[in-house]
Specification:
By secondary structure, the chain is α+β, with helices and mostly antiparallel strands. It is about 55% helix and about 10% strand. It has a single domain, classed as Hypothetical protein af1432 (Orthogonal Bundle). It has a 4-stranded mixed sheet. The termini are far apart. The relative contact order is 0.13.
Length: about 220
Amino acid sequence: MITLEDVKKNPEVQELVIGAQKQLDALGYTEHSVRHVSIVSNRAGRILETLGYDKHRVELAKIAGYLHDIGNAVNRVEHAHTGAILAYNILKDMGMDIKERTEIMSAIGNHESTVVSDISAALILADKSDVHRDRILNKNITTFEIYDKDNYPVTNAELIVDNKEKKVTLDLTINNKICSILDYYEIVINRMMMSKDAANYLKVWFELIINDTKLL
């Protein structure tokens, strides 16, 4: 089986992750570097592992998490679709089984839209939970796009997976001098609905807490 460590050592993957961040640096977009993809990879694997999925599914989720943003090396627009195809071809060249690489391709291709599998669900939950003001590269508040507004108020974010309670909780702390809880909720509602759908697919409840206030 191709493992996450194998993928990390792949020269094409390394260059695409670097290239993706270089492209986003030029655009002044939020951080999507090794830091982000590593967090998403770890969280996607931890979600499935905690919920009792086998090691094979956990490893595939980790790989999908690590590769999910390589399409940014081509263009931010439709990066999920581009990245899915890039990932499929890299994993094919590495000798991964066709069913495994197809599942990873599908999860990456849908990580901004639709839940299509357990791997896809874990990837969405992991990706949408990585919010923090340190990810902001654009220092001009007046030109913030949606992801800047999503990240800028957040001073702490924890993703808690509880198999006993069948619940995944995103616990956020925001600076309410920058943004009120309700205003922030309006900014992130679409991403949180995706997270809720992903949790439902995994047969667990999704809970959003902001400054100790439960909103979902």
